[in-house]
């Protein structure tokens, strides 16, 4: 884990409270200058970090940027300590990527059958998000975009995978945001006339046997639209953690 990742992890844990640069440097076993540089890099990424002389650094309670550290804390709050480590070991968060589904395919091609099941790939922005029928899924900054790699053994279900996933997403949004989304064409989810969630499930199979070896479940959530409907929105890390937790229960 990089110094920047460790700094944001420490700030997330003490969100809303100041931590001195000296304490951060000591806890992380790095120099004060390394902490200062990491904080400046995080500010450039959009993190609302307050720096005050003789007090240190504080991550604003209103900060809502997806991070591995933020997801970890949410999973712990959900009493998933025993399951958190394997989930987090298989979680990657990107600032900007072409498509989380495409990245999932890259990892499968690179690692083959050794790619860990329930691997989750998250992006803060997608430059070429994938939708149905080759269409582009608009993925601006501020949304939640993730893909999870599953194996057939992960899915002990009697319904098509896309229907199971759609129900799971509806349940999570209802639980966290208090909004019951409507399922429309291609399992897209709407709040009134506005599309809030796009779901794209892809399957990879053996060319000779035709047997499915991997499923890639892609979910894109427009939290800007969701926020207008919900009013009091949980953090993106909370929503993401809830989705990952539900997948872990499969």
Strand content: 15-25%
Radius of gyration: 19 Å
> What is the spatial order of strands in the main beta sheet?
3-4-5-9-8-7-6
Question: Order of SSEs, N→C?
Answer: HHHEEHHEHEEHEEEEHH
CATH superfamily of the largest domain: Bira Bifunctional Protein, Domain 2
Number of continuous helical runs: 9
Give a short synopsis of this structure.
The chain is of the alpha+beta class and 250 residues long.
Question: Please, could you describe this protein's structure?
Answer:
With 250 residues, the protein is of the alpha+beta class. The chain has two domains: 3-59, Arc Repressor Mutant, subunit A (Orthogonal Bundle), CATH 1.10.10; 68-248, Bira Bifunctional Protein, Domain 2 (BirA Bifunctional Protein, domain 2, 2-Layer Sandwich), CATH 3.30.930.10. The chain has helices spanning 3-13, 21-28, 32-44, 68-77, 81-89, 100-111, 161-177, 223-230, 236-248; strands spanning 49-52, 56-59, 91-97, 119-126, 144-150, 182-183, 189-191, 194-205, 212-221. The strands form two sheets. It has a seven-stranded mixed β-sheet with strand order 3-4-5-9-8-7-6, with helices on both faces. A two-stranded antiparallel ribbon has the order 1-2. Helix 1 crosses helix 3 (32-44). The longest helix has 17 residues, at 161-177. It is globular.
């Amino acid at each position: 884990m990089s110094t920047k990742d460790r700094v944001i992890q420490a700030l997330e844990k003490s969100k809303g409270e100041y931590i001195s640069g000296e304490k951060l440097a000591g806890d992380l076993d790095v120099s004060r200058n390394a902490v200062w540089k990491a904080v400046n890099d995080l500010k450039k990424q959009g993190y609302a970090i307050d720096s005050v002389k003789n007090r240190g650094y504080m991550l604003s309670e209103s900060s809502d940027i997806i991070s591995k550290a933020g997801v970890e804390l949410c999973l712990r709050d959900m009493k998933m300590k025993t399951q958190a480590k394997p989930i987090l070991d298989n979680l990657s968060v990107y600032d900007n990527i072409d498509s989380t589904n495409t990245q999932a395919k890259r990892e499968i091609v690179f690692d083959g059958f050794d790619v860990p099941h329930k691997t989750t790939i998250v992006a803060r922005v997608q430059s070429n998000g994938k939708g149905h029928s080759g269409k582009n899924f608009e993925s601006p900054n501020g949304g939640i975009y993730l893909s999870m790699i599953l194996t057939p053994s992960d899915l002990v279900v009697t319904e098509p995978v896309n229907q199971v996933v759609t129900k799971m997403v509806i349940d999570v949004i209802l639980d966290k945001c208090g909004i019951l989304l409507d399922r429309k064409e291609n399992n897209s989810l709407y709040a009134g006339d506005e599309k809030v969630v796009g779901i794209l499930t892809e399957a990879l199979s053996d060319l000779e046997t035709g047997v499915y070896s991997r499923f890639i479940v892609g979910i894109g959530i427009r939290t800007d639209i969701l926020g207008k409907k919900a009013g009091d929105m949980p953090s993106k890390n909370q929503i993401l953690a809830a989705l990952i937790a539900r997948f872990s229960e499969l």
